[in-house]
Amino acid sequence: MIQKEWMSVVSIDEIAASIFEVVLEGDMPERIQAPGQFVHVKTSPHVAPLLRRPVSISEHWPEQRRMALVFRAEGEGTSRMAAWRAGDEVDVLGPLGNGFDTSDVDEGEKALIVGGGVGVPPLLGLAKQLAGHGVRVQTVLGFADEPSAFFQERFSALGDCFVSTIDGSIGETGFVTDVIDRRGLSYDAIYACGPLPMLRALDSSYATAKGKLSLEERMGCGIGACFACVCHTADDPDGTSYRKVCSDGPVFPWGEVVLS
Amino acid sequence: MIQKEWMSVVSIDEIAASIFEVVLEGDMPERIQAPGQFVHVKTSPHVAPLLRRPVSISEHWPEQRRMALVFRAEGEGTSRMAAWRAGDEVDVLGPLGNGFDTSDVDEGEKALIVGGGVGVPPLLGLAKQLAGHGVRVQTVLGFADEPSAFFQERFSALGDCFVSTIDGSIGETGFVTDVIDRRGLSYDAIYACGPLPMLRALDSSYATAKGKLSLEERMGCGIGACFACVCHTADDPDGTSYRKVCSDGPVFPWGEVVLS
Amino acid sequence: MKLHVSLPGLEMKNPVMPASGCFGFGKEFAQLYDLNDLGAIAIKATTEEARFGNETPRVAETEAGMLNAIGLQNPGLKGVTEQELPWLQQLDTPILANVAGTKMEDYEAVAAGLSESGMVAALELNISCPNVKEGGITFGTDPKLAAELTKRVKHVSDVPVYVKLSPNVTDITEIAKAVEHAGADGLSLINTLSGMKIDPATRKPLLANEIGGLSGPAIKPVAIRMIYQVRQVTELPIIGMGGIMGMEDVLEFMIAGADAVAVGTANISNPFACPEIIQELTDWAGTEPAADWAGWKQGGVKA
Amino acid sequence: MKLHVSLPGLEMKNPVMPASGCFGFGKEFAQLYDLNDLGAIAIKATTEEARFGNETPRVAETEAGMLNAIGLQNPGLKGVTEQELPWLQQLDTPILANVAGTKMEDYEAVAAGLSESGMVAALELNISCPNVKEGGITFGTDPKLAAELTKRVKHVSDVPVYVKLSPNVTDITEIAKAVEHAGADGLSLINTLSGMKIDPATRKPLLANEIGGLSGPAIKPVAIRMIYQVRQVTELPIIGMGGIMGMEDVLEFMIAGADAVAVGTANISNPFACPEIIQELTDWAGTEPAADWAGWKQGGVKA
Ligand SMILES: Cc1cc2nc3c(=O)[nH]c(=O)nc-3n(C[C@H](O)[C@H](O)[C@H](O)COP(=O)(O)OP(=O)(O)OC[C@H]3O[C@@H](n4cnc5c(N)ncnc54)[C@H](O)[C@@H]3O)c2cc1C
Ligand SMILES: Cc1cc2nc3c(=O)[nH]c(=O)nc-3n(C[C@H](O)[C@H](O)[C@H](O)COP(=O)(O)OP(=O)(O)OC[C@H]3O[C@@H](n4cnc5c(N)ncnc54)[C@H](O)[C@@H]3O)c2cc1C
Ligand SMILES: Cc1cc2nc3c(=O)[nH]c(=O)nc-3n(C[C@H](O)[C@H](O)[C@H](O)COP(=O)(O)O)c2cc1C
Ligand SMILES: Cc1cc2nc3c(=O)[nH]c(=O)nc-3n(C[C@H](O)[C@H](O)[C@H](O)COP(=O)(O)O)c2cc1C
Ligand code: FES
Ligand code: FES
């Protein structure tokens, strides 16, 4: 059940350059069904910024009624979020969308988790869930550079974690696909979230993989009503077939949607 | 010299129902020339509320680099101001306009100060200045009701202070003119600031008085450039004569402008 | 005061309906609250054939507004009558079906099909969508075409026909008069203002379609002005919209001359906007001495 | 990169000028900063006779915008040439004089007078002011009238003539083409959108004039769209305006097709807006490899 809730900010920390982790408390965490779901955040109680901002739930702790979001403060809305302080009450709509279905891998099998930039956060919840189910988790994280990198330790605690940066300032130089190929990583399923070029590279390099990927698209309502966030499906006989990223996704089976 | 300054909020207090007194610190207080001048306040660092809000300077202490404003939190902008906290930096344009010229009264003469509602604040600075010059100050303050009344004690410390409220919840029941007439208050000059009906009543009841009154008008720029705030002059041969409240006023000689 | 409003085809418990395109076909919102609380529901535009619409990005944020170029994505007449409308029948809320097309024949076919379905209370002729390359908007900017289209659609419809006007015109009263003479049962206005946003970083338009429709609080003063002007030239009922976010906005529209209102963009920034506004209105009505909207409006601006 | 822009009559150090009506005749701002920092100055509209303008309230705030109905208050042609322009001569900044009227003859008289004064670099024909009851706006909404007026004013002017277009039209490109053919040396757009605000508490319009002109960030998407459209039908220089608040907005207008920009409402909410924007632009230009605006714009949206 989707709800709109005034949640309270428990803590907010800058965990990397312009990357903030905020912990929120309220009823919503109890309703979260899967890692990869997101919330739609009104970043200010005033009219502007008018649109909500979609942000993935990175982790949640239903017993404590808490959940975490990790976001990059960049534009108008995320800058407002970065100015939130512990104790603030903030307007959050969620949980939204369909998260990662992990039925592709069984206990003892290997999952390859690939994240780029602010695509990394929802994968932490996923990795924890997979590890909890006894799946062997390997992670490849791509960042622009060292200052913007985060969560390496948290992923390392769950399995092998490789980092790549474009400038080579930490980890291996290059893209995530370079790391996967160079190391010859094997897997039973891939789970990916990150910028479109990364998803496209994964999709074309490992076209026959099993797994899921999480998409980003500009959103209006976040609940499936406004048709802002549609994408084409790979199988589209008459050109009118589509998926809504907000309500059908943001997580889709590998190969289901066109990454355009 | 008009300046735009980020001033810091020293304190903010609700001194009556929805009436706030804020003390600001910066360079501006040194430039204030007369009581009755005002500042034009950007109530939020964001685009909206777009227009500044004109607020009179109620008192100023140039040595401490401080000044006070007293405002009623009502609409969008003043509500933002009411949410200011000590330590905030706020965008203030000023000092603006021409304040009260007190040359109408000499030492030992009697000044009648008449204020209504949020017209009262600038009169406090005026009363202090007059009292400082040895002028005998009598004040009549009109408010809607007891909860919204303020500054009675501060004016009482400077001379006789009579209060009237529309509902009679404190002071005398009725309008300020009722008090003046009933008590037969005499004066060498009147200084008034308050809602237009009050100013009109004073103007028609005491048409031949010496003195000054301070006007309110919707403003754009506050510096005399946009022609938002004009008023007609009493003496207007061809219908094009005018005064700008922001830069020619807000204080005008008794009888100079049309109170429409 | 009674909030009830009675318009051709639309018996509304209160004057508030979600605006077309901002509410889909209602299902998503039905998970959030009881749609019977609404005065009516304007559903998403229906075209004769199914449409995918424009490429993404389809929305962009602007100061106190948003741009959209959805491009009339919808499942087509058949899809709407078979998959969407039947579900809405369980509601006790009148459905206003938005009709779009590129040729007059398209509009006729959709209007006839929807009217015959018996599942809609009235039609709203969208002659004003700025987001499709051909057609649509021209009907909304030329009084003769607007009138002809209205006449033809009226001819094939058994339910009342509202014409939704475009604000992208020199003189909205001309179009209003033209469609009134052509037999429109009501007007709805305003649709979105045609607008554009360019990202200085990429030096490209933010929308894939480049130009889109501007909606939200930013455009409210234009909407109020147009309704005020149109109110002075016609007695037709007006469904007013453009930037309504709260109860005060509803009142402003009613004073300007609207008989009911539609809430668009607000649903997008707050999916509970409609029931929240209706609740506010209900509380307000409890303290308002006038018997009904007609009585209340007598105290307002004269048309 | 060099910020310099060269337009007919206007050699500008940078593409930023205050917009007409938001800067008076410059004196108030001269107390605040050096007016020589500006690219040009568009002064307040001049009419043949002195005008008091509309009653107050003349301004109202809207979401991310404002309404104004000043009503062309000004000291008249004689007042402007005798009391305002001489003082501006000390500046090394070109003056763009805004010309208004209700009849063609008025425009001609004012244009001739200002041109003959030798104190203005160019004229800006205000055929788009929505705040005067008669005339003014009709010239801006009818291509034939706009063209005729342009021709007549060109005939009596020795300085270049910019025509300031109204956004309250169905097709702005038609008006642009019409005035281009009539001999306009440049275009400036947009003027304000016609709008209205009603106070639900008093049930009365906030402006004494009821209807006013909407300006500020709210209207920027409409301005950008219109400039983009007009850029595609004419080679004339365009002075772009509508909601510019900061440097990013200037860049957005330049990409859309403007050759220079005017800053209106921003001066009202921040009297230091122009020098602040120019400083930002100067800093930006220091890091921008293109040689000039023409080179820089090649990377942007194609007209
Ligand atoms: C399902 C989903 C989950 C996401 N999860 C995260 C996350 O966990 N952490 C994180 O940092 N970011 C995440 N994003 C991206 C995040 O939504 C954008 O970075 C954010 O909306 C930008 O807002 P802004 O105020 O900084 O930018 P502005 O430029 O002010 O935004 C203007 C408009 O564009 C939209 N927009 C801008 N960039 C994007 C984008 N990349 N994707 C979608 N809309 C965008 C905004 O939502 C807003 O409507 C997610 C996006 C989606 C769709
Ligand atoms: C010279 C001058 C001095 C003033 N001094 C004081 C003071 O010391 N204390 C105080 O409480 N108030 C004072 N006022 C009135 C004060 O400016 C308004 O109460 C305030 O602008 C209202 O803003 P808002 O955000 O509450 O209302 P909103 O309704 O959000 O305001 C919308 C717009 O209307 C304008 N506006 C609304 N009411 C008034 C008004 N009465 N006068 C002028 N503009 C108005 C606002 O400035 C704004 O532009 C003064 C006004 C003037 C002109
Ligand atoms: C995302 C979106 C989609 C829209 N789709 C339609 C549509 O299909 N048909 C239509 O007549 N109007 C459509 N509109 C216009 C709205 O119905 C409404 O007229 C307009 O947005 C102004 O109201 P608002 O400011 O409350 O949104 C759409 C608006 C938005 C924002
Ligand atoms: C208070 C005010 C007065 C204006 N007066 C004039 C005028 O006299 N002549 C004119 O051509 N435009 C006038 N305008 C329009 C502006 O020049 C400009 O075209 C418009 O406001 C859009 O720009 P902005 O959003 O930056 O303000 C005026 C605008 C405002 C806000
Ligand atoms: S954001 Fe509205 S349908 Fe997805
Ligand atoms: S407020 Fe602009 S001239 Fe007074």
UniProtKB/TrEMBL annotation, chains A, B:
Cofactors required: FAD; [2Fe-2S] cluster
UniProt keyword annotation of Ribosomal protein present: no
Cofactor note: Binds 1 FAD per subunit. Binds 1 [2Fe-2S] cluster per subunit.
Binding site for [2Fe-2S] cluster: C221, C226, C229, C246
Top-level taxon in the UniProt lineage: Bacteria
GO BP term (any one): 'de novo' UMP biosynthetic process
Subunit structure and binding partners: Heterotetramer of 2 PyrK and 2 PyrD type B subunits.
Function: Responsible for channeling the electrons from the oxidation of dihydroorotate from the FMN redox center in the PyrD type B subunit to the ultimate electron acceptor NAD(+).
Gene3D superfamilies: Dihydroorotate dehydrogenase, electron transfer subunit, Nucleotide-binding domain of ferredoxin-NADP reductase (FNR) module, Translation factors
Single GO term (MF): 2 iron, 2 sulfur cluster binding
Family: Belongs to the PyrK family.
Name the UniProt record assigns to this protein: Dihydroorotate dehydrogenase B (NAD(+)), electron transfer subunit
InterPro entries hit by this protein: Cyt_c3_hydrogenase_gsu (IPR012165), Dihydroorotate_DH_ele_sf (IPR037117), Dihydroorotate_DH_Fe-S-bd (IPR019480), Dihydroorotate_DHASE_ETsu (IPR023455), FAD-bd_FR_type (IPR017927), FNR_nucleotide-bd (IPR039261), PyrK_electron_transfer (IPR050353), Riboflavin_synthase-like_b-brl (IPR017938)
Pfam families: DHODB_Fe-S_bind (PF10418)
Residues that coordinate or bind FAD: R53, P54, V55, S56, V70, F71, R72, G77, T78
Keywords for this protein: 2Fe-2S, Electron transport, FAD, Flavoprotein, Iron, Iron-sulfur, Metal-binding, Pyrimidine biosynthesis, Transport
Keyword Metal-binding tagged: yes
Gene from which the chain derives: pyrK
Transmembrane segments: none
Every FAD-binding FR-type domain range: 2-102
UniProtKB/TrEMBL annotation, chains C, D:
Taxonomy of the source species: Bacteria, Bacillati, Bacillota, Bacilli, Bacillales
Species for this entry: Marinococcus luteus
Necessary cofactors: FMN
Catalytic reactions on record: (S)-dihydroorotate + A = orotate + AH2; (S)-dihydroorotate + NAD(+) = orotate + NADH + H(+)
Function: Catalyzes the conversion of dihydroorotate to orotate with NAD(+) as electron acceptor.
Location of this chain's protein in the cell: Cytoplasm
Keyword Disulfide bond: no
EC number: 1.3.-.-
Family of the protein in this entry: Belongs to the dihydroorotate dehydrogenase family. Type 1 subfamily.
Alphabetical GO biological process terms: 'de novo' pyrimidine nucleobase biosynthetic process; 'de novo' UMP biosynthetic process
Name the record gives this protein: Dihydroorotate dehydrogenase
Residues binding FMN, per UniProt: S20, K44, A45, N98, N126, K164, I190, G216, G242, G243, G264, T265
